[in-house]
Fold AMP-binding protein.
Amino acid sequence: MRSVRAAPSDPAEMLLALRNALEGGDALLASGGADTAENETARETVPQHTALVIQTSGSTGTPKRVALSADAVLASAAASDAALGGPGQWLLALPTHYIAGINVLVRSIAAGTEPVLLAPGHFEPSEFAAAALRMDQPLRYTSLVPAQLASLVEAAGEDLDLLEVYRRFDCILVGGQATPPELLERCLEFGLAVTRTYGSSETSGGCVYDGVPIGTAQAQVVDGQIEIAGPMLADGYLGDEERTAATFVMRDGLRWYRTGDTGEIVDGVLRVTGRLDGVIISGGIKVSLDAVERFVRSTGITDAVAVRAPSARWGEVPVIVTTQTADLAAVRADVGAALGVAAAPAAVITVEHLPLLSSGKPDRIALTRLAQVTDS
């Protein structure tokens, strides 16, 4: 067995602790948004091959601890290097208690390069640009969530000097949630090298780039659900054998991670279409909240989030939460025509600010509490 300690919150300290963990020292417990006390983890141990544990409460699910070996996260780094064109220097702009932020540090360690560390806190495009100017290696990379990328694009539209700095990156990885098509279009117009990533803590982060698995990763869609195989898979969930057995399955001699995401593969390219738990039954008809959300966003309500709400008449109904104003009758008519009457939102709730998780994703639990339609 191996001792485990809470991962430090300071990025520079985390870099040192992570290097030690990958070399066989104390494993790290990174609390991805969940509370973890240092004195509690000091008494814990994990299997010898476990180097990293990602604890997360998620946006909709129950807390889980994802156990990752050094081999898994280093396999992820090697696959990423190959996909991007070689090892390079990274700019860290994400929290290091999430796998995407940890990956920036792991890739730096594997490449033997010194990462540039953006100070934690509110993301500012000008500070990001200043940090980018400190990068001195031939190949330069960073990893962002869509909200950060949108901030960069907005700032670049007002300051061409910032745009030139952003163009210095050989690749900007963006993931963690769906990236709006209009944002990707603007990045293309600005000449920014952006790659969409797909993955999770269970896959040591992004293992599918622009719909194509990287390295030796494989993707399949089985009964509508995306499954991933490859050397970057987690060992499972610490202390939860039942969940591990249900989520990681053997098939055709390979170990597959059942993602819980729905998708399709067309001409070898994976497209994520939603979540299995994002489906409601409204009046006996299955309705994909993800499909409702994507369509409403395509109509110009760009920050719309679709959540479920109880209904005395239909059982459950979709509800849209947004910071923008929208005409409910028009939204219902448009969605109904495109996706069916059952998918038409029962309400549009306008808020000043969308509640977000620290990862930048919408806090769907908080949003669902806002959507209490009972007689629609």
Notes: The first strand starts at residue 2 and ends at 6.
